[in-house]
Amino acid sequence: MSQQTAIEASLPAPDVAHRKAVRRTHVVIALARSDLRIRYGRGGWQVVKWLVDPFALIGVYLLLRVIFDKGGTAPGLSVACAVVPFQIVLLSAISAMSAVSLREPIILNMRFNRMLIPPAAVLTEVIAFGASFLIFPITMLAYGVAPTPALLWLPVVVTSTLLLAFGVAWPAALLGLWFPSFKVFAGSILRIAFFAAPGAIALSEVTPSVRAWMVFNPLTGLFESFRHIFLYGDSPSWWQIVIPSLTGAVLAALFIPLYRREQRHFAKLVADS
Predict the structure, then answer these.
(1) What residues contact 218, with CB distance under 8 A and at least 6 apart?
(2) Sign of the torsion formed by the C-alpha atoms of 188, 190, 196 and 198
(3) Fewer CB within 10 Å: C terminus or N terminus of the chain?
(4) Could you read off the pLDDT of 22-59 as tens digits, one per residue?
(5) Which residues of the chain have pLDDT under 50?
């Protein structure tokens, strides 16, 4: 029995649970920090890139809207309401697909809770795209859109976004481990899902026949819920919260047990990949 285990065995159950939760939190933060250093480097340039990246992404999707001659109400803000939540989901999946293989040295040489790898991938993207929320006050000011009490819905909408990202991370981690060459194709599928939802244009600008099936895409609910609180100034519809949240919960319920079973073989899988 290790010294750590002996100490925990002598503590009351609530204290043990608290110590384990704190330790897991520290591990998740450490994994996320290492991912951030890999992506953004170190020093002052890290902060600059962290701030510039989301604005560049907004520009790309806004340019597509201009090319296809789609005006609409506050197009920059409308696109921002889709791109910001989409990037959190997309990059959580892409990061999770590489997360296990990137940690080959510690998987082979250290003991740690490997169930924390997908949540760390999601936390990395949440931190990385924290700067993206600066886009909302900037674009609202640019288009003269005043804030409304609907902003009180923001914690609920962000939670729905994180639930979907969390759910997607588990199958993505397994997919990247089982089929490493599939990563680029999987990223393309997720980008197609962006355009199969009202990403470049709002749902109100879509024809009724297309709108009828588009609402089942969980990204549709995310995009429209952000538009309601930032652009339209009213409350999101119930389905715009429920569908993304339920999708994330179902994915997590299906794939966490599978991930738990497979994580016992990670050392062999990463060594063979």
Answers:
(1) 164, 243, 244, 247, 248
(2) negative
(3) N
(4) 777 777 777 777 766 666 666 556 656 666 666 666 66
(5) 1-11, 67-69
